[in-house]
Amino acid sequence: MRVGFGFDAHRTGGDGPLKLAGIEVAGDRGLIGTSDADVAVHALIDALLGAAALGDIGTHFPSSDPRWEGADSLDLLSDVVRTVTAAGYEIGTVDLTIVAQHVRVAPHREAMRGRLAATLGISVDSVSVKATTTDALGFLGRDEGMGATAVAVIQEA
To answer: Which residue stretches of the chain have pLDDT < 50?
Structure first.
């Protein structure tokens, strides 16, 4: 068994929609990033790549490469799933925590779990999505951005 940890953060701004874990959670706001800036998926990508010791999101999808401008993060995740499985691993479980002061995750949690499970090729029972705030502390608490952490467990296939 191998475990990987991922973290991502993006500034608030730009046009909507705001997507988290592949689900639109707000239409009137967005996050700034090269792709669709889905912090939850980006953290998960880093967790999976880290567990397999295959680099990080910037290695596979550098922000300097115009191919990733506006990319759907779930497409990037699908590519990482193929990379991890080609390296001889299968995905066991994943656990995400989204850090946002004003965006509410609870109404979207089950849709997020389902979308991620389908993309990862695992049971929805193996996908956890949680959320927290920083109680108005720091850039996340001032709603200047959002962050996410992820843990992924993989094992040899």
So the answer is: none
